[in-house]
Design a protein that fits this description.
Elements lengths: L1 H6 L8 H17 L9 H19 L8 H6 L5 H17 L6 H8 L4 H5 L3 H5 L8 H22 L3 H5 L16 H12 L18 H4 L7 H4 L13 H6 L14 H15 L13 H11 L2
């Protein structure tokens, strides 16, 4: 992981989407080696999750204790414990399709307390319908539904504000691939992860600290920009910015929504308020990349 990090899997290198895909293709298989036939304890699962978390923090430059729950969600990367369960399920299903005279079948029948018996007691194996057809596509579809159900249960039980503010569907968040400049995409990701505003500090407006709630009413953000954003429905308890982010189209070829420019400008103001000591490129117009692309596509 350190070698790939030096080659571009970092905050200043590849995009987060590409970095996460490279991690899943080259690094995670090393963590998964042997998990299909391993009897993991709870401590083993926690160690595997921590190993993956350390790798993911290297992609974004996070603190060694920073949470990766939102990062894994927006990149659609499952936990290592779920990956281990998935590999065990696939192993058990493939074993069931082996002929009776296969060496593995003979060995398992001759050993009363075989490892296979223990693997079959994993909850995911017990939950998989016994009458389901053995096809890769149907198994993948079932695993997506199973993981989505687990995530839904997690959302119902957690009080973590940042993950509850994300889209409730397990898929790559559009902020990772919609047309945007590097600065705009960085702000979108950092807002999702809570790095904007980050640790609350006295706001330069003098009316409070730089918290998520204060930024909604901070006088340093032009009120006219808020009027350009869609209004959340009555009873919505989340942040206005999160509501708007969840309205972004999921297609990379979609036309730029009318509120995109205002959204990017607001996040730019947030960034400047929370990090006043950083020099910003005044010539870059927030949100302009997607606007220009949509305008070019509209020209016959």
């Amino acid at each position: 992981m350190a070698q790939l990090h030096s080659m571009g899997l970092n905050r200043q290198g590849f995009t987060l989407l590409l970095s996460s895909r490279l991690f899943a293709a080259f690094i995670r298989p090393k963590l998964e080696y042997g998990l299909a036939i391993a009897r993991l304890t709870r401590k083993d699962g926690e160690e595997l999750n921590r190993a993956q978390d350390r790798c993911l923090r290297m992609l974004v430059g996070g603190h060694r204790t920073a949470s990766t729950v939102v990062l894994r969600h927006i990149t659609n990367l499952p936990s290592m414990t779920f990956r281990a369960d998935t590999l065990v399920l696939k192993f058990c299903l493939r074993f069931n399709g082996l002929p009776d005279d296969c060496l593995l079948s003979l060995l398992s029948s001759s050993v009363s307390s075989s490892l296979l018996t223990q693997l079959r007691k994993r909850q995911i194996v017990l939950d998989y319908p016994s009458d389901a057809p053995l096809s890769s596509s149907r198994l993948a579809s079932w695993l997506r539904r199973y993981r989505q159900d687990q995530f839904h249960s997690f959302l119902q039980s957690t009080s973590q504000v940042l993950i509850r503010a994300c889209r409730p569907v397990l898929r790559v968040d559009p902020i990772l691939y919609l047309p945007a400049s590097r600065a705009d995409r960085s702000r979108l990701i950092r807002w999702r992860m809570g790095w904007i505003p980050g640790k609350p500090a006295p706001c330069s407006c003098g009316l409070g600290d730089t918290s998520r709630s204060h930024l909604m009413v901070c006088t340093l953000v032009p009120s006219a920009l808020w009027c350009c954003l869609p209004v959340p429905p009555t009873g919505y308890v989340g942040h206005h910015i999160d509501y708007v982010l969840n309205l972004l189209p999921v297609s990379a070829s979609a036309r730029c929504p009318p509120f995109w420019s205002a959204l990017c400008q607001i996040l730019c103001h947030f960034d400047k308020i929370c990090h006043p000591d950083i020099e910003y490129n005044s010539s870059a117009v927030p949100g302009q990349v997607w606007i220009d692309k949509s305008s070019a596509a509209a020209v016959p």
